[in-house]
Design brief:
The chain is of the alpha/beta class. The protein is built from six helices and eight strands, in the order βαβαβαβαβαβαββ. The chain has an eight-stranded mixed beta sheet with strand order 3-2-1-4-5-6-7-8, with helices on both faces.
């Protein structure tokens, strides 16, 4: 897909459903070209068909978060096709241990969750950071959860998912500190809330679009916007 020379390019992982889908759609509605990833080409095509008729600048590319080679292929595609990346939204993630006791959690499952929820976002950030530094602009949003907050932890269970998102929060804060010399590159974590998604279920009080609002806000921050924070409903949320 041909894009305008001054058009921003956003990459949203896990964009074929839920909050990722709404984030991709809402960014594209702002005139941004969105490269929306899905785990395979078929799911990506279904994403495009779902958005058909909305006249949005959006394309898709297969990306498997558990495969480092897939991240390399994605980076090479973006570099060759667009030569830039303005926005990176690390949305893809898993929670296979939902409500399971940590005392019964398999360490193999724990490793898998860390690979997809922490290592994969870090790899993409590391791959695309040179492009952002070269162009002097970048917005990175890491999808977290209120369940990662140590301040508000009032129940146990879901150890792997919550620990991984806590690690992602720490990663967000420390990388932001490393970027102090690059004030036009901002990195933040977003807690979308309990939303009606495959993960949240039908009883959730929020829509996926409502959950995506803070993500899109952080992805389009102006020059005076924050960096290194954890946000819910466009406000600071306690670590």
């Amino acid at each position: 897909m041909t894009i305008a020379a001054d058009q921003k390019v956003a990459l949203v992982t896990g964009a074929n459903r839920g909050i990722g889908y709404e984030t991709a759609r809402l960014l594209a509605k702002q005139g941004i070209h969105v490269l929306a990833t899905a785990r395979d080409a078929q799911k990506g095509q279904l994403l495009l068909e779902r958005l058909d008729g909305e006249d949005l600048s959006i394309s898709t590319f297969p990306y498997e978060a558990s495969d480092p080679a897939s991240a390399q292929a994605l980076f090479k595609y973006v570099q060759k096709t667009y030569g830039r990346l303005d926005i990176l939204v690390n949305n893809a993630g898993i929670a296979p241990d939902q409500w399971q006791s940590g005392f019964q959690l398999s360490t193999d499952v724990f490793k898998q969750v860390m690979e997809i929820n922490v290592y994969a976002p870090l790899q993409l950030i590391q791959l695309f950071m040179p492009l952002m530094k070269q162009q002097g602009y970048g917005r990175i949003v890491n999808l977290s959860t209120e369940l990662a907050s140590l301040t508000n932890s009032e129940m146990g269970s879901t150890l792997a998912y919550r620990t991984s998102k806590g690690a992602l929060n720490t990663l967000t804060k420390l990388l932001a500190l490393e970027l102090k010399e690059y004030p036009d590159i901002k990195i933040n974590a977003a807690a979308p809330g309990w939303c009606k998604t495959a993960l949240g279920g039908d009883d959730a009080p929020r829509s996926a679009e409502e959950g995506a609002d803070t993500v899109v806000w952080l992805a389009t921050l102006d020059d005076n916007g924050p960096s290194g924070g954890f946000y819910r409903d466009r406000a600071i949320y306690p670590w």
